[in-house]
Amino acid sequence: MSTATIDTYLADCTGSVLRGEAAPRWPEALSGSENAVAGRLAFHGIALLLAQAPGVLDSWPQGLAHKVREQAGIRTFWEKGHRAAIAPLLEALAAAGIRTLVMKGTALAYSVYPDPAVRERGDTDIFLPGANRRQVRDIFRACGFWETGDTKALQESWQCDTVIGFEPAVDVHWRINASAAISQLLECELGLDAGVPLAGLAPCAQGIGPVDNLVLVAINRSAHGQFGYYSGADRLFESDRLIWAVDAHLLVKAFGPGDWEMLVQRAARTGTAAIVSDTLAFAQRALGTCVPDAVRAGLAQAPADRGLAAYFGASSHLWRLRRDLAACTGPGEAARVLRYVALPSDEFLQARFPDLTGWPRPALHLRRWAEGAGKLLTGRR
Fold first, then answer.
1. pLDDT value at position 378?
2. Is residue 348 part of a domain?
3. 260 in Cβ contact with 292 (< 8 Å)
4. Per-residue burial over 228-245, b = 16 or more CB atoms within 10 Å of its CB, e = otherwise
């Protein structure tokens, strides 16, 4: 059975759930494809969404339905452990006077989803504008977190233990994006001063606002499709995960005329109009999301060669590096960017060269430098 056929059926089920309609019954054409369907469910991140909706799994093969309900139970369990670890950390940061903005999946989970556990994710992303790194790290350690190995120039990851066996992870963003150039653009143009309360996560928790979060969802989706991402040992370039369509659907469901107008303006100023339009079109195609004609027209008329679009679409690696260095907040940040470009983490090297796991780290760096030099000499990007 083709992946497209499975994805179409899962999208039909998801759209029906979001509209409060009866989901389509299990099609005879998918009989014998239960393992493939389970794999696509995991990829799309919608197991709990479908499991919670009345009647969706009633016509599914018994073994598959049991597996989905089991996965859904694990997600609910994970959410409780994750929140129990993250909430005290956010309270500690707030008590120290450190402004913290929760981003991406966790901000969505506690703002537009009726049950936070439905928004599957592996970690919580937080943005700490202007924070002192040493002070933040001390707070993390005092809350029982330790830093993992995958430290980037503008971002680092932390984990902690829980009594229920999970290791909640937090990605700390010193800038709002892994690129300094994109961060400079977004930090200037998005309304980051106006956060939304996430009281279900923690009394002090603040998240990125809905219009800005939609822009970030679109950026994240586009980056995954263009640059790829790793799932285990596999590098994927798929950008049509249904969970991202659900994010967009739930965000715009509450939009009023002013929100739509703000979205068009901010997408135009940041050069994200094309990717925002593509994300909305995906949600509309997959789930029947309503997007006003005037919004589609406004996004289509926005300049297509500026801001983030120029950075993603028409630049070499060296061009991007120059833009990133120019956008750094100081020499210390610029040094970290250069160091990470020259000497990325072991996790990056393992993902970049999965077939060379036995090689020593210096040899992998030399291999990467040689490939980079070859691209410069041949003019490849």
1. 57
2. yes
3. yes
4. eeeeeeeeeeebbbbbbb
